[in-house]
Amino acid sequence: MQEVVQFVLHAVGCRYASVALVTGEGSPEIVASSDARIAESRWSPRWAEQVQSAGIRSAVHLPVVVASSPQAVLSLYSDKPDGFTVDDVAVAHILARHASVAIATARRDENLAYAIDARKLVDKRWAF
Question: Which residue of 23, 32, 87, 107 is most buried, as measured by CB atoms within 10 A?
Answer without folding.
Answer: 32
